[in-house]
């Protein structure tokens, strides 16, 4: 719960978050990393309420659901930044689709946001994954000077929704369709069932992936890279969407890496 009595007295997580923002406010203001999801929606509202100096930004991935992009466009104080290369161009340039291990898409499309800023505020929460649970509420940036402030790091999903509903905040309608988490269509970090659901829900994006895979195969041939695993775009799609990288012993990841490089 956002408001609860503990052995150490009453705790108000909302007041704590606003207090942290006011206490840590940097001279150049906060860079708010906004994705349009429920967590960053809560973070942006807390930042707005705190009265601190900030600017909010969304890094266009070119593969986010259209419904999510429409929702983000409706936010008057969120700047949208297009990438140098789209996901489709990246697939061709890298000679392989993005995978759980080769997550080049995140670095190219998302992780450059906030470079050069003192504090980047995010909606990362510890209970989202085992990996994120190992992080800290405040931590240094890996590539550049500055810090990340994961403002609602210790909030639960239930508390996030408690805040949204309690404050009558608008949110992306995909949650009401049963999507628990929002992000790139057919993201390789999602499970197989979710990725298949994405392909069925946004079939035009499946077609875009297939077209990119076809161009990727042609590029591989042009530069002299052989591939016994992939002969057609559909071969690439089947291998990729079903996560065969991890579940087929006769098609190990190492071989794909060798072919890609």
TrEMBL record:
Pfam families: PAPS_reduct. SUPFAM superfamilies: Adenine nucleotide alpha hydrolases-like. Residues 31-189 form the Phosphoadenosine phosphosulphate reductase domain. GO terms for molecular function: catalytic activity. This is Phosphoadenosine phosphosulphate reductase domain-containing protein.
